[in-house]
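Worked example 4.2. Below are the chains of a multi-component assembly; read each line carefully before continuing.
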Amino acid sequence: MALKLPPVTGGSLVRGLRSLSGLDQAELVPQTRLAGPMPWVIAIMVALTVIAAAAGLAASNVARNASDALSGGVTVQIVEADPIVRLRQAEAAAQRLNALPGIDAATVVSQEEVERLIEPWLGGLAIDGQQIPVPAIVDVRLRKEVSGERLGALRRIVREVAPGARVDAQSTWLKPVFGAIDSLRLLALALVGLLAGALAAVVLLAVRNALGTNRDTIEIVHLLGGTDQQIARVFQRSVGYDAAGGGAIGLTAGLVAVLALGQQFAGLGAGLISGGALGWIDWLLIALVPVAGVGLAMLTARWTVLRALRRML
Amino acid sequence: MNGGSPGEIVHFDNVGLRYGADREVLSDVSFTLFPGSFYFLTGASGAGKTSLLKLLYLAQRPSRGMIRMFGTDAITLPRDRLPGFRRRLGVVFQDFRLVQHLSAFDNVALPLRVAGVPERDLTKPVTDMLEWVGLTERMHARPAQLSGGEQQRVAIARAVIGRPELLVADEPTGNVDPDMAIKLLRLFEALNRLGTTVVVATHDVHLLKKVPDSLIMRLDKGRLSDPTGALRYPPRPRPVQG
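Applying the procedure described above to all two chains together yields the following structure tokens:
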């Protein structure tokens, strides 16, 4: 080899700190996309998060729909042994209530309807009007939510025509159910939080492992003038690809499970449950779960790498 | 601290280095490297050559003393400014330190990619550099597929492709036969002719005579001696081309 001068790279080499755009072309860290365990762990996390989120959203819908339906409802029970007096008092109460401002409608529930409603608990024979005195019921719809004060006023007015009447807001009956639904929502939220934490932990461990495996390469890039940000971006991108693959698989699996569960619940045909059907905003939120997962994974990777690199010269 | 003599690239003043609680591997090391000069750093194995080079290519901070590089105090240099300084250096490691999963082409291209050179501007300088070190035919081979001499040349091409102001080479001829050693030395000399300051650490005394006007720094048990006066006076100017 003669003493030949080296080729001149000229001014194209900028010695400033520019971004590492070129490293997009050559992967510094060997990629093992969907080959290692991380994408599959992320897929499981995303699937579970999708199911938890869907459950939480459905519970919210149940609570909202039930609350909307019951918030302006008041039930008047006329407890009177004589069926003729009972019916007369119910009709008088309905008439008085309909005359009041703020009342949408006060309707006497027919005897047949009352029997139909309680038949599952007491049986057909038992509820024959001749054997068990069943209270007459007036269903009252208010224009606004029932307040305690308003309920007291209604009670006084009704008792003027039906002294033995019981007046209750319908929402109070379902208070324990709403409490249980709230607990379910909180549980779903906690599950989503825990799964997010677990996902971050998985990424953190995987990135630490990758940093250890690729320590030599990182040192070389540092000594060639590579910045922490450039190195972090390489890991961030690699984790992003893995998380996107895992997220897509997890979303698919989660949606299959949610749809199957939805079919099961729809088959129950219960009014309260049918109020939990997911709307398009709910589906959109569920579709965002893997996107959030990818974002969280990339942020965790970046934070982990930058923190580790700070300990290197 | 900024400043220093305008005619210096690097200045060490009473530098000491120890690893942990062990005795110092470098003691009271003081010298100045001048632009466009060619230095040999010699000494027996364990004399501290690699440790001194690590300080030079900013892979290590000293335990004491002062180091000024390119007119700036390198010891108090914040971490975020280190990459900018490292991009002004070229390093040939004793064990090559090529990235094993990248081809020869990608290894040589790495400093340019790190510096943000767009891909379209990268192919020609890298292929020219590989041609210069005689590896055009092997540009797609990975390090494991290359011989020791070929890996050494890839490492040299990677070190010089950014036209560094200071080139530091640690035993660059240690793994090659004598003929190849002379050829590699010629590569450094050619780069030096373009104005790069070169520091070559070697324990091969035969190499020292192969580069005219080169200066010798000798390390003995972590202390530097100055057989040619290289460390006291600026050297005679060498012809610079390019």
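Take a moment to check your reading of the output against the notes. Chain A has two domains: 30-66+176-309, 73-143. Chain A touches chain B through 42 residues (CB under 8 Å).
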